[in-house]
Amino acid sequence: MQRREIVEKKTGGKVAYIHMKAMGDEDLTAFLQDMHTYVANKEALILDLRYNTGGNVHKEVLDFLRQQEHFQWSYRDFPKTTHPNITPAGMPIVCLVNEHSLSDAEVTSNGIKTLGIAKLVGTETYRWIIFTSSVRLLDGSTCRMPAWG
Fold first, then answer.
1. Beta-carbon neighbour count of residue 103 at 10 Å?
2. How far apart are CA 65 and CA 73, in angstroms?
3. Which of 131, 42, 55 is closest to 93 using CA atoms?
4. 17 with 43: CB under 8 angstroms?
Protein backbone atom coordinates (compact mmCIF):
# COMPACT_ATOMS: atom_id res chain seq x y z
CA MET A 1 0.00 0.00 0.00
CA GLN A 2 2.98 2.30 0.50
CA ARG A 3 3.61 2.78 -3.25
CA ARG A 4 -0.06 3.59 -3.82
CA GLU A 5 0.11 6.29 -1.15
CA ILE A 6 3.25 7.75 -2.73
CA VAL A 7 1.59 7.88 -6.18
CA GLU A 8 -1.57 9.43 -4.70
CA LYS A 9 0.46 12.11 -2.90
CA LYS A 10 2.81 12.95 -5.78
CA THR A 11 0.00 13.17 -8.38
CA GLY A 12 -2.59 14.92 -6.25
CA GLY A 13 -4.82 11.85 -6.47
CA LYS A 14 -5.00 11.92 -10.27
CA VAL A 15 -3.06 8.71 -10.98
CA ALA A 16 -4.00 5.22 -9.82
CA TYR A 17 -1.44 2.60 -8.78
CA ILE A 18 -2.17 -1.13 -8.86
CA HIS A 19 0.38 -3.82 -8.04
CA MET A 20 -0.40 -7.35 -9.17
CA LYS A 21 1.82 -9.72 -7.17
CA ALA A 22 0.63 -12.74 -9.15
CA MET A 23 -1.70 -13.65 -12.02
CA GLY A 24 -4.15 -15.98 -10.25
CA ASP A 25 -7.91 -15.83 -9.83
CA GLU A 26 -7.72 -13.89 -6.54
CA ASP A 27 -5.30 -11.40 -8.09
CA LEU A 28 -7.60 -10.95 -11.08
CA THR A 29 -10.57 -10.35 -8.78
CA ALA A 30 -8.62 -7.71 -6.84
CA PHE A 31 -7.47 -6.08 -10.11
CA LEU A 32 -11.02 -5.90 -11.49
CA GLN A 33 -12.38 -4.63 -8.18
CA ASP A 34 -9.76 -1.85 -8.14
CA MET A 35 -10.46 -0.99 -11.77
CA HIS A 36 -14.19 -0.63 -11.11
CA THR A 37 -13.78 1.42 -7.92
CA TYR A 38 -10.41 2.98 -7.15
CA VAL A 39 -9.35 3.63 -10.78
CA ALA A 40 -12.80 4.76 -12.00
CA ASN A 41 -12.25 8.49 -11.45
CA LYS A 42 -8.51 8.67 -12.08
CA GLU A 43 -6.82 10.24 -15.09
CA ALA A 44 -4.07 7.63 -15.54
CA LEU A 45 -2.94 4.21 -14.32
CA ILE A 46 0.35 2.69 -13.21
CA LEU A 47 0.11 -1.11 -13.41
CA ASP A 48 3.01 -2.66 -11.51
CA LEU A 49 3.92 -6.22 -12.57
CA ARG A 50 7.31 -6.20 -10.85
CA TYR A 51 7.99 -9.19 -8.60
CA ASN A 52 4.93 -10.93 -10.06
CA THR A 53 5.14 -14.72 -9.71
CA GLY A 54 2.81 -15.55 -12.61
CA GLY A 55 -0.40 -17.52 -13.05
CA ASN A 56 -2.74 -17.60 -16.01
CA VAL A 57 -5.09 -14.59 -16.24
CA HIS A 58 -3.30 -12.51 -18.90
CA LYS A 59 -6.24 -12.69 -21.32
CA GLU A 60 -8.68 -11.26 -18.79
CA VAL A 61 -6.30 -8.44 -17.83
CA LEU A 62 -5.52 -7.54 -21.44
CA ASP A 63 -9.18 -7.71 -22.51
CA PHE A 64 -10.18 -5.42 -19.66
CA LEU A 65 -7.44 -2.87 -20.34
CA ARG A 66 -8.41 -2.71 -24.04
CA GLN A 67 -12.00 -1.62 -23.39
CA GLN A 68 -12.76 1.63 -25.15
CA GLU A 69 -15.49 4.21 -24.77
CA HIS A 70 -18.57 3.25 -26.76
CA PHE A 71 -21.22 5.50 -25.24
CA GLN A 72 -21.75 8.62 -23.16
CA TRP A 73 -24.54 9.48 -20.81
CA SER A 74 -25.74 12.28 -18.55
CA TYR A 75 -28.47 13.40 -16.25
CA ARG A 76 -30.86 15.83 -17.89
CA ASP A 77 -29.20 19.21 -18.49
CA PHE A 78 -25.78 18.00 -17.33
CA PRO A 79 -22.69 17.46 -19.51
CA LYS A 80 -22.28 14.04 -21.08
CA THR A 81 -19.58 11.77 -19.75
CA THR A 82 -18.29 8.30 -20.44
CA HIS A 83 -19.12 5.47 -18.08
CA PRO A 84 -15.98 5.43 -15.88
CA ASN A 85 -15.86 1.71 -15.16
CA ILE A 86 -15.61 0.38 -18.69
CA THR A 87 -13.06 2.51 -20.55
CA PRO A 88 -9.51 2.06 -19.26
CA ALA A 89 -8.18 2.34 -22.84
CA GLY A 90 -9.16 6.01 -22.72
CA MET A 91 -6.51 6.83 -20.12
CA PRO A 92 -2.72 6.80 -20.23
CA ILE A 93 -1.34 3.56 -18.75
CA VAL A 94 2.22 2.73 -17.70
CA CYS A 95 3.19 -0.87 -16.93
CA LEU A 96 6.20 -1.50 -14.68
CA VAL A 97 8.23 -4.70 -15.20
CA ASN A 98 11.55 -6.10 -14.02
CA GLU A 99 13.58 -9.28 -14.15
CA HIS A 100 11.29 -10.69 -11.44
CA SER A 101 8.13 -10.30 -13.57
CA LEU A 102 7.72 -14.00 -14.26
CA SER A 103 5.66 -16.33 -16.41
CA ASP A 104 2.18 -14.89 -17.01
CA ALA A 105 3.42 -11.42 -16.01
CA GLU A 106 5.73 -11.72 -19.03
CA VAL A 107 2.84 -12.82 -21.26
CA THR A 108 0.80 -9.87 -19.96
CA SER A 109 3.55 -7.30 -20.46
CA ASN A 110 4.27 -8.69 -23.94
CA GLY A 111 0.55 -8.37 -24.79
CA ILE A 112 0.51 -4.83 -23.43
CA LYS A 113 3.46 -3.93 -25.66
CA THR A 114 2.24 -5.81 -28.76
CA LEU A 115 -1.29 -4.39 -28.54
CA GLY A 116 -0.10 -0.85 -27.72
CA ILE A 117 -2.14 -0.73 -24.51
CA ALA A 118 0.50 0.94 -22.35
CA LYS A 119 4.07 2.13 -22.13
CA LEU A 120 6.37 -0.50 -20.60
CA VAL A 121 8.92 0.84 -18.12
CA GLY A 122 11.64 -1.11 -16.35
CA THR A 123 14.18 -3.80 -17.03
CA GLU A 124 13.83 -6.81 -19.32
CA THR A 125 12.21 -9.94 -17.99
CA TYR A 126 14.03 -13.29 -18.06
CA ARG A 127 11.64 -14.71 -20.68
CA TRP A 128 10.96 -17.73 -18.47
CA ILE A 129 7.50 -18.35 -19.83
CA ILE A 130 6.80 -22.00 -19.13
CA PHE A 131 3.68 -23.98 -18.39
CA THR A 132 3.91 -26.81 -15.90
CA SER A 133 1.86 -29.89 -15.14
CA SER A 134 1.62 -31.94 -11.97
CA VAL A 135 3.40 -35.30 -12.11
CA ARG A 136 2.90 -38.05 -9.52
CA LEU A 137 6.08 -39.74 -8.35
CA LEU A 138 6.51 -43.41 -7.34
CA ASP A 139 6.30 -42.59 -3.63
CA GLY A 140 2.93 -40.84 -4.15
CA SER A 141 4.25 -37.29 -3.91
CA THR A 142 3.93 -34.85 -6.79
CA CYS A 143 6.08 -32.27 -8.47
CA ARG A 144 5.60 -29.70 -11.21
CA MET A 145 7.26 -30.43 -14.55
CA PRO A 146 7.67 -27.95 -17.42
CA ALA A 147 5.44 -28.99 -20.29
CA TRP A 148 5.87 -26.25 -22.88
CA GLY A 149 6.80 -22.62 -23.14
1. 23
2. 21
3. 42
4. no
Q: Residue 116's closest CA among 66, 59, 50?
A: 66
Summarised one tens digit per residue, pLDDT across range 83-107 is: 655 678 889 999 999 999 999 999 9
CA 125 – CA 16 distance, rounded (Å): 24
Q: Of 11, 30, 27, nearest to 94 (Cα)?
A: 11
Quote the pTM value: 0.84
pLDDT in tens, 34-71: 999 999 889 999 999 999 999 999 999 999 999 888 88
Q: How far apart are CA 32 and CA 57, in angstroms?
A: 12
Cα separation, 135 vs 143, in Å, equals 5
Q: Which of 40, 48, 137, 131 is nearest to 91 (CA)?
A: 40
3-state secondary structure the chain: CHHHHHHHHHCCCCEEEEECCCECHHHHHHHHHHHHCCCCCCCEEEEECCCCCCECCHHHHHHHHCCCCCCEECCCCCCCEECCCCCHHHCCEEEEECCCCCCHHHHHHHHHHHHCCCEEEECCCCCCCCEEEEEECCCCCEEEEEEEC
